[in-house]
């Protein structure tokens, strides 16, 4: 049994990570800026981190300001690592995204800088492909429009519970530096995924594949965010939709 500090415990990934680590018998300290978790702390200011880190064996760093393109994430990661050093240098595992080093997308630049800090500390970096929930969010957003636009890119969506399983395995055998990338079980076209969503919700709206401009989307079209050689045997997009859309 380990004492594990989990940043981002209230997030899309953090919730299944906390649940799985607890079923493995670990003492999980959920961290959030808001009340309701075990520890209240703000990574960007650093307030509350020393208390949260006292006596931990490992840290799973899932927090990110995803809604504001990672604003404050580099400072937050630095604050976390400094506090971890003061607390005796526990293992830190950072969750990142496949392709952050090759896709010129502002949020990915932030993730790459945070990765480097974690690597300098001696922690582990696990890159995953897009979560099913992320694709679902995009489909829901697009469906607000009368004609549903879908980017003409491939995606390799993965279930957060499958990412959680890899995190649990990584904590059992901690490794410094990059872990093998983690990709979902299928590489599918985003317009097809959005079509599946429309079908699942009974929508008959027209869908159009759109070509988004810029270097980042060129890189996405080239598949820089995919790891077809690292398919997991986990939950497929179709399985996910069946559970989420009733
Ligand atoms: N979405 C994807 O498809 C995808 C794919 C691969 C990797 N990832 C990575 O996986 C990680 C988790 O993503 P997610 O989708 O679960 O994110 P999310 O749902 O947006 O959750 C973000 C979490 O970060 C916490 N947070 C943000 N700023 C904070 C701060 N200053 N101090 C403390 N906590 C802070 C939030 O906690 P409170 O609001 O409760 O404070 C929340 O729990 C991220 O690093 C992301 O880059 C995501």
Which descriptors apply to this entry?
NAD(P)-bd_dom; 17% strand; binds NADP nicotinamide-adenine-dinucleotide phosphate; globular; 39% helix; two-stranded parallel ribbon; NAD(P)-bd_dom_sf; 11 strands; 7-stranded parallel β-sheet; 246 residues; NADP; alpha/beta; Rossmann fold
Give the secondary structure arrangement, pairings included.
Elements: E1 3-7, H1 14-23, E2 27-32, E3 39-40, H2 49-53, E4 58-61, H3 73-86, E5 91-97, H4 106-121, E6 124-128, H5 132-142, E7 148-151, E8 154-155, H6 160-172, E9 177-178, E10 188-189, H7 190-200, E11 207-210, H8 215-221, H9 237-244
Parallel strand pairs: 1-2, 1-4, 2-3, 4-5, 5-6, 6-9, 7-11
Antiparallel strand pairs: 8-10
Helix pairs in contact: 1-6, 3-4, 5-7, 7-9
NADP nicotinamide-adenine-dinucleotide phosphate binds at residues 7-14, 32-34, 42-44, 62-66, 72, 76, 95, 97, 111, 128, 130-131, 134.
């Amino acid at each position: 049994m380990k004492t594990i500090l989990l940043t981002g415990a209230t997030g899309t990934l953090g919730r299944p990570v906390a649940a799985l680590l607890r079923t493995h018998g670990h003492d999980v300290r959920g961290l959030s800026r808001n009340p309701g978790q075990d520890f209240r702390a703000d990574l960007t200011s650093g307030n509350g981190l020393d208390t949260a880190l006292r006596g931990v064996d490992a840290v799973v760093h899932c927090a990110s300001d995803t809604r504001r393109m990672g604003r404050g994430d580099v400072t937050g990661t630095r604050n976390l690592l400094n506090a971890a050093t003061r607390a005796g240098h526990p293992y830190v595992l950072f969750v990142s995204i496949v392709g952050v080093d090759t896709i010129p997308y502002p949020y990915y630049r932030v993730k790459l800088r945070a990765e480097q800090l974690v690597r300098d500390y001696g922690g582990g970096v696990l890159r995953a492909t897009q979560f099913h929930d992320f694709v679902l969010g995009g489909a829901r957003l697009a469906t607000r429009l009368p004609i549903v636009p879908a980017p003409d890119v491939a995606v390799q969506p993965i279930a957060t519970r499958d990412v959680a399983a890899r995190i649990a395995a990584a904590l059992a055998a901690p490794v410094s530096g990059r872990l093998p990338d983690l990709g979902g079980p299928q590489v599918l076209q985003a317009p097809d995924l959005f079509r599946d969503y429309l079908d699942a919700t009974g929508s008959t709206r027209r869908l159009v594949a759109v070509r988004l401009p810029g270097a980042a989307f060129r890189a996405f079209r080239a598949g820089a965010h995919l790891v077809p050689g690292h398919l997991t045997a986990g939950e497929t997009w179709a399985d996910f939709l069946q559970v989420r859309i009733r």
